Give the backbone structure.
Amino acid sequence: MRPLFDRLRSRSAAFLHDLLMVPVAWLLAYWTRFNLQQIPPEFLGTALRMLPVVLLVCGAVYWAFGLYRGVWRFASLPDLVRITKAVATATLVALLVLFALNRLEQVPRSVPVLFLLFQLMLLSGPRLFYRWLKDHRLGLRAGTRVLIVGASGAGENLAREMLRDSGRTYNPVAFVDDLPRRQGGDIHGVPVKGDTARLPELVEELGIDLIMLAVPGASAADMQRLVALCERTGRPFRTVPQLQNLVSGQVTVNQLRPVSIEDLLGRTPVTLDWDALCHGLADRVVLVTGAGGSIGSELCRQVIAARPRRLLLVDNAEFNLYRLEREFTECHPALDFGRYLLDVGDRAGMEALFRRERPQIVFHAAAYKHVPMLEGQVRAAVRNNVLGTSVVADCAHRWQSERFVLISTDKAVNPANVMGASKRVAELLCQALAERSATRFITVRFGNVLGSAGSVVPLFQRQIEQGGPVTVTDPDIERFFMTIPEACQLIMQAAVIGQGGEIFVLDMGEPVKIRYMAEQMIRLSGHEPDRDIAIRYIGLRPGEKRYEELFYDAEDLIETRHPKIRTARRPDGDAAQTEQVLADLRQAVEHCDQAAMVAGLRCLVPQWSVDPTIDRNPAPEECHAAIPEH
């Protein structure tokens, strides 16, 4: 009750002050109009008769504009903006009322302008002067006033660093925290004012300029709630890096960054068994195909942390391979690595690589993945995703690699497109090899990764930067998402715990509507969906499903020792049939027989709901373009 009483008393005093300033400003306007001389009696009489009306109008408008939600001690630029709007509105309304009453008789034209200016001076001046006196009395310097969300280790680090700054760029004013035992206390003299639900209220009361979210371990749901509260305040907000990205465990002000869509969709930290990872990858020769891609390059960075004896990078994109080479040369000068500009479908080249390097662990990330494009490129999909996988897997078997990890996709489950069908066949051929090989063939299946090349996030970012519209295929379309680092860490974990023949399914959490992603990205850019930037629905693209699945109904999901990895077991397939169809697919690719390729895919993946428009032979010129000249 006592804080409430003090707040009401403070607001009443501020309101009384402003009411007293209205007649002062009104009479000063007349006095200034007459050159600081005596006001003529007829004008003075009119001014005094109209004063009650002016006083009533101004008081009502001031209160309606919320001039008394803030505290004088923390008067800031937003308060001045609010005062300006209130004064301008009050002056305009008062003039309209007076015009209705007496047609503004004996009100000189300069008086309204002078009245507005004097109101601004008399309302804002005392507030700023009071804050100046308080700041200097307390030894504080000017700086951005900060509210810190989270009074644990990360928040404490931020407050301590800000208080140590002699220039005082930031002034920590208060904390909010949902843990009851922290509320009412203080950290380094900075009070914990309450829980996060009070955030909008405290921002107004304390004159906050910036909100810092110091909750690196928050779940995606918690981040969504906190961001919604921050957006209600209209103040800028920043967040610390996610827990898994804090190498030292310490948080500093220069690590703060804008909230990203990854924070809202994939913030739950992954706990890795690093002892098992290091035991499985350390001092091994590790090969990564598709090393220049989004997954492949991050996988290489994660593998480096396990200290392999040698890291082999394979990619058919020259620039991607060059960029990765430069990064590792500069950031990891002691790393022993080799890079090969090589197509995974090049059997002679892959055989030579395995014969020379003898890789012990193979991560096969090379694949074509763009769904709509591959609908019209069946030969390319089969040649790369199926036959390329077959080549690398055969080499791993022939040269006795310890483990082969195929990186698959949720689109391989009940596929509706060429890409998914081709990846499902890749899964089947790896399972077939696992039955007769000493190499442990392991498949890891997961959904979309945030920020990967060609994914929806970079597309939305580009469309928002251009002012919209943001294009979504369907209002109900949804996908599973995780961050690239999280996906790569779980791939490595699955590689270590796999015994061969398994399909590991990564726990992707709940699916996310693409419409929700678009709305959140627009809000995080400082705009309002469908007001500042439009969202346009363009219809499903070729081969696209509304909903993706992570496993077949016939697959039994079995828990593993890692909480975010499960094993999808299903009845054994026909390895002989798989081998025969692979041979047929090689012939079909060689002769550019698209109908035979589609038939081969459908034979192994009867669940594929094939688009009838692609079930045809390409024209001769398409064949000619598809087959490289030698």
About this structure: The chain has a mean pLDDT of 82.
